[in-house]
Amino acid sequence: MIAPAAPKTLHMVILGAGSVGCYLGGLLMKGGAQLSFIGRERYRAQIAEHGLTLTHFEREPLNFTSVDFRTNYEVLKDADIILCCTKSQDTAEAARAIAKHARPDVQIISFQNGIRNPEVLRESVPNADIVPAIVPFNITPSGPGAFHCGVTGALIVGGNAASALLTAFTAAGQPIIAKTDILAAQWAKMIVNLNNALNTLSGGTLRDGLMQRDYRLALALLVEEALSVAKANGVTPSTFNGRKPKQLLKTLRLPNVIYKLVMQLIVKIDAKARSSMLDDLEAGRISEIDYLQGEIVRHAKLAGVSAPYNARILELTQAAFAAKVSPKMTGREILKALKAA
């Protein structure tokens, strides 16, 4: 009797191995995945010298000394699964690279902000198996080759994601959920991520901003407006990290004394956590604001409604990136700017 062939080990490739890509890749390596990274030379050099280190505010550190990190696209030809972790503004370039180097039917997991990226990928790679996905936490560089996760949460992927991906993340201790209707969850994540711009304008930590009631009231105005825009476009955002955006509104409007208790008991966030948008500003990179507040404004126009609050934050954030420095606005200043919109 001929023994059945052993199942093939799928080759996964992280395309856009920055903070999020390196963190997700490290988790997959811990989970036993065969993995390659594609990213910029500065990260390749750092990891070659110092290794790859992942830290989490609730877990033990992970260290990897042997990492297959590339700075060109050649390894895409061997990919069974590509995790696209580029910034949203770089998706079109990533899609062209995949179309040129990868096999036409490769599975592409879009671990990116916003809701537009799967469409952009599909335009260049029409025969690929495109899977929308959501990263619920923020990752910050914490040293050469080191990346820190300051927020907890489960990854979310479309229902057609390869089982090998789910198995590897689960084996690494990273919760992951497969959802058939992921668009509603993407909208929920995008609405929560509207805080990224406020964090950029304040220039401090996420916790510092959220502990200011005026800051929270400003965020509540953005969230409420975004929910109206979603409704006008026929979308009902679902839960994100176990909570619906409408529930978030109630929490944001709580008095400071009660909110502090909520932060201690419910909201799990590292005191040092910041948004990736603020990191991009300080590093001189391009902003993803067009895929957050900009996406809300775009969908408002599509539905024939207005979104003045999100439009104002879009304007202020674009000005901050043009000036290459955070204006370090207080919550009161941000709220005042919104009320004047």
Task: Please indicate the count of domains.
Answer: 2
Q: Specify the biggest β-sheet.
A: 8 strands, mixed
User: What is the second-level CATH architecture of the largest domain?
Assistant: 3-Layer(aba) Sandwich
Strand residue percentage? 15-25%
What is the tally of helical segments? 15
Give the class-level CATH name of the largest domain.
Alpha Beta
CATH topology of the largest domain: Rossmann fold
CATH H-tier superfamily of the largest domain: NAD(P)-binding Rossmann-like Domain
Arithmetic mean pLDDT:
93
Order of helices and strands: EHEHEEEEHEHEEEEHEHHHHHHHHHH
Number of E-type strands: 12
Structural class: alpha/beta
Salient structural properties:
341 residues; alpha/beta; Rossmann fold; N-(1-d-carboxylethyl)-l-norvaline Dehydrogenase, domain 2; 2 domains; 8-stranded mixed β-sheet; 4-stranded mixed β-sheet; globular; disordered N terminus
Write the layout of secondary structure elements.
Blueprint: E1 11-15, H1 19-30, E2 34-38, H2 41-50, E3 52-56, E4 59-64, E5 69-70, E6 81-84, H3 91-101, E7 107-111, H4 117-124, E8 129-134, E9 139-143, E10 146-149, E11 155-158, H5 163-171, E12 176-179, H6 183-192, H7 195-202, H8 206-210, H9 213-232, H10 245-252, H11 256-265, H12 276-283, H13 293-303, H14 308-323, H15 331-339
Provide an overview of this structure.
It contains 15 helices and twelve strands. It is an alpha/beta fold and 341 residues long. It folds into two domains: 170 residues, NAD(P)-binding Rossmann-like Domain (Rossmann fold); 155 residues, N-(1-d-carboxylethyl)-l-norvaline Dehydrogenase, domain 2 (Orthogonal Bundle), CATH 1.10.1040. The strands form two sheets. The protein has an eight-stranded mixed sheet with strand order 5-2-1-6-7-8-11-12, with helices on both faces.
